[in-house]
Automatic annotation (TrEMBL), chain A:
MF-aspect GO terms: ATP binding; ATP hydrolysis activity; branched-chain amino acid transmembrane transporter activity
Any GO BP: L-amino acid transport
Pfam families in alphabetical order: ABC_tran
Residue spans crossing the bilayer: none
Protein name: High-affinity branched-chain amino acid transport ATP-binding protein LivF
Keyword Nucleotide-binding among record annotations: yes
Alphabetic keyword roster: Amino-acid transport, ATP-binding, Nucleotide-binding, Transport
Family classification: Belongs to the ABC transporter superfamily.
Automatic annotation (TrEMBL), chain B:
Domain of life of the organism encoding this protein: Bacteria
Swiss-Prot/TrEMBL keywords: Cell membrane, Membrane, Transmembrane, Transmembrane helix
Protein name: Leucine/isoleucine/valine transporter permease subunit
Record's subcellular location: Cell membrane
């Protein structure tokens, strides 16, 4: 579904963070991208979304080259992005935030209500200003807002960041259910191994702007040295 | 939170509508003039309050509309019939087109944001003012005098509108229509997207919105409304001069809107009415020191009540769909 080859990207010319990265995701996979801070995880998802000024190489999505397209075109091809820090609209109500997820979509979306099955708390809080909700609730809103546009590929950047462990578990379970029921392909950037074990079907480890190894989630479970090699400082 | 107040909003319009019953002709004419400034203020409120685009040169569009109307009705545009209707159409289309093209040029690619956009619009207004001063065909420094009043029909059956009461009613109707149209736009999905872009452009972009296009479109809408106000100004005042294109009026409208409240249309509209009326009273009493008072008031409002003095009172509830629960 997504094929990335020789991806070089960075924030200023001549200073690439990604140094010829290769990455493949098949339809229906839930891939975790793991690595230490500063290895290029967030840069990678931003490059996919067209949010970086300097990107070279090739990114194809369902056979279409998307490298160089502006973010709105990439989004409208069916890739939804839940960025680090959630980036909900704090002055908007929950309902308005969800509306932002569908208004511009090329497919006519009849209802956003299906996300309330996954995140019932949002139904209760439809009229609340999103900025006044807790971190966990905001994260649920950010995911729901990405889902209402009916994407095929969901990019999540550190969904566990700043959220208490019990809520992280809930979110991980819900994401797993969503991926299965909505036939979503998921790429999740994460350092929280607990969430990765609950959600991912495979793991790619990133180091210095390159994917070093890709393994199934079972291999990660049975070989703890993998995690310590790529994650501990 | 304060209770939303749509009854109050209705009351304001009702009071304005009833003014002809109690207000004399002289003041009725004055009120019509103030409402024209009010329409102009709503145009800035829309682009600044909803779109987050602080346009420092909004008078450029007001002036374009005024000149378009004046030149048309005076028959100075070759090949264009000297009719008020054509004047109105030009006064909408010309500023709207200029703003859309300017917007596309400014917002494409990485785009101009924040103060840079303000500076460019300010420069555009100042340039237009200089051009108008030096262009004799459109009256040069002296502007255009004796603009015909609004006329319906032609020949012997033509009806000229110059009495204060009909002018008041026409301007009132225009203000109400502009208010309802802009309010409808603000409360439509387009408005939601615009506020999303105002809050964070990159976020709106990766959620699938062509930010430059939305900004240029809203800029064009605001410019067309400003041009419409300018056209009304031309026929009501019977006089246009380069001053209405430039820096001074651009700054004035900014103050009305900031004092009233940029995010609430009616607050911006009333901001213009209130500041202008107070100016009429105080400039008699204080002379030039009135500007000092206005300046201090402006600074206090920006620091203490950044959302404006009137906005909290006239804020409306969200449309049902965005409140949810319906």
């Amino acid at each position: 579904m997504l094929t990335v080859s020789d991806l070089r990207a960075g924030y200023s010319r001549g200073a690439d963070v990604l140094k010829g990265l290769r990455f493949d995701v098949a339809k229906g996979e839930s891939v975790a991208l793991m690595g230490r801070n500063g290895m290029g995880k967030t840069t990678f998802v931003k490059a996919l979304m067209g949010c970086l000024p300097h990107v070279r190489g090739s990114i194809t999505f369902n056979g279409t080259e998307i490298r160089g397209l502006p973010p709105y075109r990439i989004s409208n091809l069916g890739i939804a992005y839940v960025p680090q820090g959630r980036e909900i609209f704090g002055d908007f109500t929950v309902a308005e935030n969800l509306a932002m997820g569908v208004i511009g979509k090329p497919l006519k979306v009849d209802s956003v209500d299906f996300v309330f099955d996954y995140f019932p708390i949002l139904a209760e809080r439809r009229t609340q200003l999103a900025g006044t909700m807790s971190g966990g609730q905001q994260q649920q809103l950010a995911i729901a807002r990405a889902l209402v546009g009916r994407p095929q590929l969901l990019l999540l950047d550190e969904p566990s960041e700043g959220i208490q462990p019990s809520i992280v578990q809930d979110i991980a379970m819900t994401l797993k259910r969503i991926a299965a029921e909505e036939a979503l392909t998921v790429i999740v950037v994460e350092q929280n191994i607990d969430l990765v074990f609950r959600l991912a079907t495979s793991v790619r480890f990133i180091e210095n702007g390159l994917i070093k190894t890709g393994v199934s989630i079972d291999e990660v479970r049975s070989d703890p040295t993998l995690v310590s090699r790529y994650l501990t400082v | 939170m304060r209770r939303p107040s749509s009854p109050l909003t209705v009351a304001v319009w009702a009071v304005l509508a009833l003014c002809p019953l109690v207000v004399d002709d002289w003041n009725l004419g004055l009120l019509a003039q103030l409402m024209i400034y009010g329409i102009f203020a709503m145009s800035l409120s829309f682009i600044w309050g909803q779109g987050g685009l602080l346009c420092f040169g909004q008078a450029l569009f007001f002036g374009l509309g005024a000149y378009a109307m004046a030149l048309t009705t005076k028959g100075l545009l070759p090949g264009v019939p000297a009719s008020a209707l054509v004047g109105f159409l030009l006064a909408l289309a010309l500023p709207g087109t200029v703003a859309f093209l300017l917007g596309l040029a400014l917002f494409r690619g990485r785009g101009l944001v924040g103060p840079y956009f303000g500076i460019v619009t300010l420069a555009a207004a100042v340039i237009a003012e200089r051009l108008a001063v030096n262009w004799n065909y459109i009256g040069g420094f002296n502007g255009l005098l004796d603009i015909p009043p609004l006329t319906f029909g032609s020949g012997d059956g033509a009806i000229e509108i110059f009495e204060p009461l009909p002018i008041f009613l026409i301007v009132f109707g225009a203000a109400l229509v502009v208010y309802l149209l802009l309010l409808g736009l603000e409360r439509s999905p387009f408005g939601t997207v615009l506020r999303g872009i105002r809050d964070n452009e990159m976020r709106a972009a990766f959620m699938g919105y062509d930010v430059a296009r939305y900004k240029a479109a809203s800029f064009a809408v605001a410019a067309a409304v400003a041009g419409f106000a300018g056209a009304l100004f031309a026929i009501q005042f019977a006089f246009v001069s380069p001053a209405i294109l430039g820096f001074a009026l651009s700054t004035e409208v900014l103050i009305w809107v900031a004092l009233g409240g940029k995010e609430v249309l009616l607050a911006a509209f009333l901001g213009a009415l209130v500041v202008k009326s107070v100016e009429n009273v105080l400039s008699d009493a204080l002379g030039q020191y009135w500007l000092l008072v206005l300046g201090i008031l402006f600074i206090l409002s920006v620091v203490l009540l950044p959302r404006g003095l009137l906005a909290p009172v006239f804020r409306l509830r969200l449309p049902r769909g965005l409140r949810g629960g319906g």
